[in-house]
């Protein structure tokens, strides 16, 4: 049943051969005519043949239903022709250098012998193929009617396709000798051998190989001629395998013997070569595949080794500004990895290494002389500001400041350096440059003094760095500061430092330009947001208001003076009224020692003033109380300064002396003292109530520092001790009209360890509150939240201020639970909290 | 007005056919009649001629002449006529004596051109079918490459002769729908078509069958469909002629069995007129001898039953 069905569906029911009128076409007489003609065609004697005659004969055979017979006859004819004549011809070109092979399949002859012999073989195969193509084209012409009628109706491959299959079987697939390799194997081996010669720099006949590749591309594994079953693919696979081996070895050898730069150049060259080879020698369809092989062997598997090559790898290139070679590395890796992960990793490692060096160098500088910091304070009354300018290296504290400045500069230089590499060598690749930036941020943030140093960098520039600079230069300096600031995650800590430094700059009038200060603030506003600069701006506002207050008070005094007694000279008062929450006034306590903490909190009014000063002070307090009721003024004398007009016995002129408020109080004591009399330290202390530390330092300035030695100390020594006596220095001979009495510790310096710890502790405390606030805010909104999610949200909320410590958050959550803001949810599958309203 | 350029081209072809100026190939018939032709006219439309002269590969091309030994001289002449005039118009075979008298080919062809020249105006309109051209908005024969239609049996684009008739509904077979291949609904009960008004007095059935064969042999698809249409038109009127039996043999012996169109025309006609035709000795002989024909007729006799064969 099945058999009948299938027969009916498949083959057509054929009419009997016999039975046609005129079926007298004599195949046996017609065929020899065709066969003879085919022979002529194959031996290139076709020009004498009449197409019409041959076509007519083939046509008649087909018309008389002898198509199948004709088809088979032609096939058999071609088979014999190929198997005998053509193959013999080709096999004859297989000369000894090609047939003698060692175990590995390589011939033993020299390459030039092999090449010559190979070319002979390739040439003969090429000619055989091309001739055969032409001949079969002609046969196809003659047998056109057979193709059209017989092959179409009987689903046979065209005679051309059939004969190509015969060529494949008879020429390429038949063993050269029984049980030996086929000509296809030989061909493959020879082509690969020649390609290897080409790779080794020997000139080969590319076109000859290309012709043979054409042949392989024109032949298929089966007569069905399936597109992805070309014989060429078989060759291609061997070619790719062999290439992979070759490049694997070559890559390993080069890694050992060569430097990274040459390696890159070589790899690039090899890839281009293989591309060219596909175009000139093989097939374009292989381009992508061989490229993948070379990239895999020379790049992907070697990238790590290449990058880490000693004395020539990426580290070397960065160290020596080998931008071009870096770009080669980049180009290579970009070929195999769009994320360039190896290179990125290497660059990050370098940034981290170099950054860590910078950090360590800064720490070493600052920690080399930690003990002498305190001693620095006692240095003989030398004005700190001048000292900072002139004798930087000599003073440990200043040295620290220099370390801070250096750190920022170095960080910026590091950034510039890698930025340049990114733009020059990595074509500003987003992935790499952002990875480098992340590493930069890590470097900045692992450095514990980052916040302080950045602020100090700005401080120094505000005080002197930007002097004599053009606007553009100032701009770029500010931009630099902002750039480093961008990396910083502990923005809150930075804010603390910046406030402190800004405070001193403003109060001590150390800023070169208030305009530039304001520019800086607005830059930070853009960069860090409004809330960040709010307090800083308030400080500027206080300064402006104070200016107005001072002027107002001055006018007020003048009015009073006009009306009242004119005998006493007016004392000019310039005042700064600072909002206590805005200004980091504790910054001024550090230098005076912690023994004054209580006093500073309790107010400064214990200081005893001479009457005219006292009058002025209370006058202002009244004036202020009129303007702003309910406000309490606290006087910070340790931050003030005074201008005095002084006469010295050995000078005929009146000198302008600028000194601290305390120094003024001390000096005024000596105004009323009869000549030759002296005051002891204790007496001065009792009559002024100046804190001992401040007193000692001011006395140092007045009695020890040679340029401003208005007083003579008894006994003569550097340190101020109890029992020391002071009297007016009659021998003082001022060299300038204007004399400035410096007081130690006015400048902004790097904090000492104790100060830093304090700052950090304070900062941590305030962070604690910020964290608690954030947690409560989140929980109030969410009511219930798993632990992990709460952590994440908190961190996200706070990230623009600082990078919260997870343990700190946990501790704060604990605290909130204790204080019954939150409670743990017992029944939750994951640890969760619930908000308690 | 769009007709003018077209008329110019067709007119030029016509002139070329008559003068044979610039001819670069000579076709001989087996009676040595000589037909100088133009490769540019023939080769693009016939795979056979294309190959014969291409690239100077064969002697035919290099020597510039070939002989079509397989065909009747008249078929060769009409083949050439077709290439130039897009139609062929069989002349009434001259009387026996006249044929023997004008055996020298060149004289005959001269005589022919004089004759065709005399009927120029009529033939012009008939052959080029300007009405068809305008009806279809372009040349009726739109077969740009022989290769594309080499194996094709496009019936729609059949002959100008058919298209030239006003009114598309008109069928040369009367009011029956045109016969299609394969599963068309040919029922036995269908009446035979009325004799077509286009049919000429001379049957010419054998001639058209031979022209069809020539079209097949030389790969000229347009000629095949033209001959097929002419054959069918003639059959509507001349099925009764003795020539029909001979035409049957020609049809079955000059085309491969896969070529169905002519065979169906024959079988249809026998089917319609079976009662009369099968009684004729020569038809009976043909049916007896030609298996394919017998099978076709058997299929038609079973038409009433459900289709069995795919």
TrEMBL record, chain A:
InterPro entries: Cullin, Cullin-like_AB, Cullin_homology, Cullin_homology_sf, Cullin_N, Cullin_neddylation_domain, Cullin_repeat-like_dom_sf, WH-like_DNA-bd_sf
Full protein name: Cullin family profile domain-containing protein
GO biological process per UniProt: ubiquitin-dependent protein catabolic process
Protein family according to the UniProt entry: Belongs to the cullin family.
Species of origin: Baudoinia panamericana (strain UAMH 10762)
Region described as Disordered: spans on this chain: 1-21, 362-395
SMART domains: CULLIN, Cullin_Nedd8
GO molecular function: ubiquitin protein ligase binding
Domain of life: Eukaryota
Cross-referenced Pfam families: Cullin, Cullin_AB, Cullin_Nedd8
Domain named Cullin family profile: residues: 449-703
PROSITE patterns the UniProt entry points to: CULLIN_2 (PS50069), IQ (PS50096)
The entry's keywords: Isopeptide bond, Ubl conjugation
From TrEMBL, chain B:
One Pfam family in the UniProt entry: BTB
InterPro entries named in the record: BTB/POZ_dom, SKP1/BTB/POZ_sf
Residue ranges of coiled coil: none
Annotated segments matching region Disordered: 165-199
Cross-referenced SUPFAM superfamilies: POZ domain (SSF54695)
All residue ranges annotated as the BTB domain in the record: 23-84
Cross-referenced PROSITE patterns: BTB
Protein name in UniProt: BTB domain-containing protein
């Amino acid at each position: 049943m099945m058999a009948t069905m299938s027969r009916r569906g498949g083959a057509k029911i054929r009419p009997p051969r016999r039975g046609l009128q005129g079926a007298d076409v004599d195949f046996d007489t017609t065929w020899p005519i065709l066969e003879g003609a085919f022979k002529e065609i194959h031996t290139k004697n076709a020009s004498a043949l009449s197409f019409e005659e041959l076509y007519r004969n083939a046509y008649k055979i087909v018309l008389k239903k002898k198509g199948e017979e004709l088809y088979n006859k032609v096939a058999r004819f071609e088979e014999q022709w190929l198997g005998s004549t053509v193959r013999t011809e080709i096999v004859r070109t297989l000369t000894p250098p090609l047939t003698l092979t060692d175990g590995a399949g390589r011939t033993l002859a020299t390459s030039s012998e092999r090449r010559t012999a190979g070319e002979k073989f390739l040439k003969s195969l090429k000619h055989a193929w091309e001739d055969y193509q032409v001949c079969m084209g002609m046969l196809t012409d003659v047998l056109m009617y057979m193709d059209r009628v017989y092959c179409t109706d009987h689903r046979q491959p065209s005679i051309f396709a059939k004969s190509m299959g015969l060529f494949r079987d008879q020429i390429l697939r038949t063993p050269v000798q029984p049980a030996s390799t086929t000509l296809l194997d030989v061909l493959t081996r020879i082509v690969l051998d020649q390609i290897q010669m080409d790779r080794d720099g020997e000139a080969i006949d590319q076109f000859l190989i290309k012709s043979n590749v054409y042949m392989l591309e024109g032949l298929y594994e089966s007569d069905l001629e399936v597109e992805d079953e070309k014989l060429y693919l078989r060759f291609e696979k061997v070619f790719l395998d062999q290439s992979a081996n070759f490049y694997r070895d070559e890559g390993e050898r080069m890694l050992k013997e060569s430097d990274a730069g040459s390696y890159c150049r070589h790899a690039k060259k090899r890839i281009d070569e293989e591309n060219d080879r596909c175009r000139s020698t093989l097939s374009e369809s292989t381009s992508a595949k061989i490229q993948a092989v070379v990239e895999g062997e020379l790049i992907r598997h070697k990238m790590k080794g290449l990058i880490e090559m000693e004395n020539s790898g990426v580290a070397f290139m960065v160290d020596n500004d080998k931008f071009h070679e870096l770009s080669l590395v980049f180009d290579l890796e970009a070929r195999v990895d769009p994320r360039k992960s190896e290179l990125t990793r290497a660059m990050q490692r370098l940034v981290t290494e170099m950054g860590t060096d910078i950090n360590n160098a800064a720490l070493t500088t600052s920690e080399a002389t930690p003990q002498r910091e305190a001693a620095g304070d006692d240095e003989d009354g030398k004005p700190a500001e001048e000292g900072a300018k002139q004798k930087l290296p000599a003073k440990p504290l200043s040295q620290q400041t220099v370390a801070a400045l250096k750190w920022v500069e170095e960080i910026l230089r590091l950034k510039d350096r890698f930025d340049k590499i990114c733009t020059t060598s990595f074509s500003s690749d987003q992935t790499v440059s952002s990875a480098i930036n992340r590493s930069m941020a890590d470097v900045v943030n692992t450095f514990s003094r980052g916040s302080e140093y950045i602020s100090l960098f700005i401080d120094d520039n505000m005080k002197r760095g930007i002097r004599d600079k053009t606007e553009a230069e100032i701009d770029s300096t500010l931009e630099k500061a902002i750039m480093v600031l961008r990396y910083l995650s502990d923005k809150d800590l930075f804010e603390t430092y910046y406030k402190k430094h800004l405070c001193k700059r403003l109060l001590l009038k150390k800023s070169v330009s208030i305009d530039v200060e304001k520019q800086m603030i607005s830059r930070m506003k853009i960069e860090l947001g409004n809330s960040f600069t709010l307090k800083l701006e308030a400080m500027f506002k206080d300064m402006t208001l104070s200016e107005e207050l001072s002027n107002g008070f001055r006018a007020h005094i003048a009015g009073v003076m006009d009306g009242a007694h004119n005998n006493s000279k007016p004392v000019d008062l310039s005042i700064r009224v600072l909002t206590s929450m805005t200004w980091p006034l504790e910054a001024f306590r550090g230098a005076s020692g912690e023994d004054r903490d209580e006093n500073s909190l309790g107010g400064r009014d214990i200081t005893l003033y001479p009457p005219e000063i006292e009058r002025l002070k209370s006058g202002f307090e009244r004036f202020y109380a009129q303007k702003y009721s309910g406000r309490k003024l606290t006087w910070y004398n340790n931050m003030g300064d005074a201008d005095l007009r002084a006469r010295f016995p050995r000078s005929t002129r009146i000198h302008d002396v600028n000194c601290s408020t305390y120094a003024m109080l001390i000096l005024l004591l000596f105004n009323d003292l009869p000549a030759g009399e002296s005051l002891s330290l204790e007496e001065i202390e009792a009559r002024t109530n100046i804190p001992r530390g401040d007193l000692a330092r001011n006395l140092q300035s007045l009695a020890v520092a040679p340029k401003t030695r208005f007083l003579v100390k008894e006994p003569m020594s550097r340190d101020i001790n109890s029992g020391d006596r002071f009297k007016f220095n009659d021998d003082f001979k001022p060299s300038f009209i204007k004399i400035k009495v410096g007081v130690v510790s006015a400048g902004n310096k790097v904090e000492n360890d104790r100060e830093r710890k304090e700052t950090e502790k304070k900062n941590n405390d305030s962070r604690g509150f910020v964290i608690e606030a954030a947690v409560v805010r989140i929980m109030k909104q969410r009511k219930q939240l798993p632990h992990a999610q709460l952590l994440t949200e908190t961190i996200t909320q706070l990230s623009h201020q600082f990078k919260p410590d997870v343990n700190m958050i946990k501790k704060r959550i604990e605290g909130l639970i204790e204080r019954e803001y939150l409670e743990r949810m017992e029944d939750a599958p994951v640890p969760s909290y619930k908000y308690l309203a | 007005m769009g007709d003018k350029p077209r008329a110019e081209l067709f007119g030029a072809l016509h002139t070329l056919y008559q003068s044979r100026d610039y001819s670069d190939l000579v076709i001989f018939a087996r009676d040595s009649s000589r037909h100088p032709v133009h490769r540019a006219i023939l080769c693009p439309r016939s795979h056979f001629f294309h190959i014969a002269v291409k690239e100077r590969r064969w002697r035919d091309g290099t020597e510039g002449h070939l002989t079509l030994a397989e065909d009747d001289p008249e078929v060769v002449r009409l083949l050439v006529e077709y290439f130039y005039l897009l139609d062929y118009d069989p002349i009434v075979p001259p009387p026996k004596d006249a044929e023997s008298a004008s055996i020298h080919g060149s004289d005959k062809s001269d005589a022919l051109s004089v004759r065709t020249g005399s009927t120029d105006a009529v033939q012009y309109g008939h052959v080029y079918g300007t009405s068809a051209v305008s009806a279809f908005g372009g040349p009726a024969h739109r077969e740009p490459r022989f290769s594309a239609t080499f194996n094709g049996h496009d019936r729609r684009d059949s002959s100008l002769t058919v298209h030239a008739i006003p009114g598309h509904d008109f069928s040369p077979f009367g009011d029956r729908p045109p016969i299609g291949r394969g599963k068309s609904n040919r029922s036995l009960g269908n009446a035979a078509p009325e004799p077509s008004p286009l049919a000429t007095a001379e049957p010419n059935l054998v001639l058209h069958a031979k022209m069809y064969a020539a079209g097949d042999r030389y790969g000229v698809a347009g000629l095949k469909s033209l001959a097929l249409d002419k054959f069918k038109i003639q059959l509507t009127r001349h099925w009764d002629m003795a020539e029909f039996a001979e035409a049957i043999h020609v049809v079955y012996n000059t085309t491969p069995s896969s070529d169905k169109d002519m065979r169906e025309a024959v079988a249809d006609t026998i089917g319609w007129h079976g009662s009369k035709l099968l009684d004729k000795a020569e038809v009976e002989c043909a049916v007896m001898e030609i298996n394919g024909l017998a099978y076709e007729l058997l299929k038609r006799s079973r038409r009433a039953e459900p289709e069995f064969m795919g």
